[in-house]
Amino acid sequence: MAFRKVVKGTVLIGGGAIATVFGLSQFSQYRNKHGNFMYVQAAEPVNIPMKNHFPTREDQFLALQNTSEFDVLVIGGGATGCGCALDAVTRGLKTALVERDDFSSGTSSRSTKLIHGGVRYLQKAIMRLDFEQYRMVKEALHERANLLEIAPHLSGPLPIMLPVYKWWQLPYYWVGIKLYDLVAGSQCLKSSYVLSKSRALELFPMLQKDRLVGAIVYYDGQHNDARMNLAIALTAARYGAATANYTEVVHLLKKTEPKSGKEYVCGARCRDVLTGQEFDVKAKCVINATGPFTDSVRKMDDQEVSNICQPSAGVHIVMPGYYSPDNMGLLDPATSDGRVIFFLPWEKMTIAGTTDTPTEVTPHPIPTEEDINFILTEVRNYLSCDVEVRRGDVLAAWSGIRPLVTDPSSKDTQSISRNHVVAVSDSGLVTIAGGKWTTYRSMAQDTIDAAIQAHNLKAGPCKTVGLLLQGAKDWSPTLYIRLVQDYGLESEVAQHLASTYGDKAFEVAKIAQVTGKRWPIVGKRLVSEFPYIEAEVMYGIKEYACTAVDMISRRTRLAFLNVQAADEALPRIIDIMGKELHWSEQKKKEELESAKKFLYYEMGYKAKSEQLTDRSEITLIPSDIDRYKKRFHMFDKEKKGFITILDVQSVLESISIQIDENTLHEILNEVDLNKNGQVELDEFLQLMSAVQKGYVSGSRLAVLMKTAEENLRERVVIPVDRSGGGL
């Protein structure tokens, strides 16, 4: 045993020394090359004029249909596809982009929300002496700095704590994190530092303190991924790219070279998903930037081509904000099965994830209960036993499919790097595959460079380094104060608008409705606990939102923060969209059903609702059963065995509580497992049992009935004969 410890210590010290020397030498080279690169700026200005407003979706369709030939047609509206469109159009190329769903509807909106180089990739690079992994981290850290610079309203630095529970791990992790700083060079966000046990608990009081010896804090970036993706798309549109969501590629167009008889890709047959109209879009070069669907587009070009992507599913969950400090994340570097788990504050909530399992490619990935429970188990290991981690506190859950580049014979997706690959087929189709969110810009640059070379396109050098995105130009950290002062918005709403739309927040404020209250003057909220306002729905339509799902998931982030809140906001959102887009009653009904289905399957509502089913076991002790029966019978005065809206209304009126009938219907419907318009005693006992076990939290009916019971007990009725008889 002693010999093992000596060997382990020698390996660690030796490895750390080698890694440090390696890092310092690379840092020296970096400083020599980029010594004056403190702020990211574009090497050359973009000569193409930028439109004051982005074109309407109708204008974009006209451009797609009426342009005889584009230089570049990009298939895919995720981060990489939109990045390719922005890169191409700012080089002076006539550019088009089509996306069969919404911008960022796939993997790009379902990330961990981090802009990072990848601490674990650097660890692999050092342990395996893998220079490719190291180069990827170095590139990602440069792109991290660029992204924070070009969209400061949507992104910012985030300190992340790495708790240490063994003394020997402290120098080991410290060396690794310091190397991360060194590789970033002058673009290091802030220097990492070591914390004592007491200081770590002061900054992260929810942390498991038993056996804790200290912690290391390092910095990475965080962003609003779907809004960042949209900002890239809108910026490309303002520079002149013809971008259209809900436009599907039916098949690729090809032409035959007369001399050689060889076929070349020359465009795509497209279909407007919303209307069914089909049309051709011709282009000198077609770029396949479809993420997990890369191989399906490649097979449109050549049915015999082998797959180059192996999809991996990553599940995330969202929990209430009290699970983490407002401005400190947590990294679990080694979970029970060797994965990495992040625990991060985001939009005043807490994100936990992610998993990493092989999966099938689907446009509608569903988070599984197994993955949700895995994340919860790992979170419990790192949080204090005083904090009860409850299944019922999972407010939303989603699964994103990572498009990992791999050898088809590989089985372990955890060992696969997310390096990107640019490939040009014999027919000229340019494919960009793999990569990660952070490096979307450099991936786009490599792709357009390859397209220019393969198709002899006339274009200048890349101009996207330091190129500000939509909303960044006149943004400042104090912009929200002007929104409060000039428009009479709530401070929380103003901060949200500024951090979502940047300098375009004023355009949203201008169309915000008057509340009729003394304060706030304008800005009606969609749901009371979130700062999203009705004006954002109207503005979201200008940002090419076409469906209610677009609005709850990508223009606002309600679906990713709380599925029940999103569900409650849907009727009002659909009313506003219906009025603006002239929807029929049938269309509005279809939109509501589609959005509810999205929340139910893709955002974890199904997994959440299944915590309380008609098969739920009642595990209450006899005294609790008696107590809850008495509470139930305070409402069921006629001993019917069930309670209805009328029963609840009657009790609430007796204690002077007013709740409208529609809200009461929603409250009872959450517990009404049989969907017969009433809550039976067994259903109520199942609810209370699930609440006790932590499977269900925040049940409005449970809280309402408890409050009513306490109010009724506090009321003491004084008989007339004891009150003096009166007059």
TrEMBL record:
GO terms for molecular function: calcium ion binding; glycerol-3-phosphate dehydrogenase (quinone) activity. Keywords: Calcium, FAD, Flavoprotein, Metal-binding, Mitochondrion, Oxidoreductase, Repeat, Transit peptide. Its cofactor is FAD. One of its GO terms (cellular component) is mitochondrion. Residues 623-658, 659-694 form the EF-hand domain. PROSITE patterns: EF_HAND_1, EF_HAND_2, FAD_G3PDH_1, FAD_G3PDH_2. It catalyses: a quinone + sn-glycerol 3-phosphate = dihydroxyacetone phosphate + a quinol. It is found in: Mitochondrion. Pfam families: DAO, DAO_C, EF-hand_7. It is an enzyme of class 1 (oxidoreductase). InterPro entries: DAO_C, DAO_C_sf, EF-hand-dom_pair, EF_Hand_1_Ca_BS, EF_hand_dom, FAD-dep_OxRdtase, FAD/NAD-bd_sf, G3P_DH_FAD-dep. Pathway: Polyol metabolism; glycerol degradation. One of its GO terms (biological process) is glycerol-3-phosphate metabolic process. Its EC number is 1.1.5.3. The keyword Flavoprotein applies. The keyword Amino-acid biosynthesis does not apply. Belongs to the FAD-dependent glycerol-3-phosphate dehydrogenase family. Calcium-responsive mitochondrial glycerol-3-phosphate dehydrogenase which seems to be a key component of the pancreatic beta-cell glucose-sensing device. This is Glycerol-3-phosphate dehydrogenase. It comes from Chelydra serpentina.
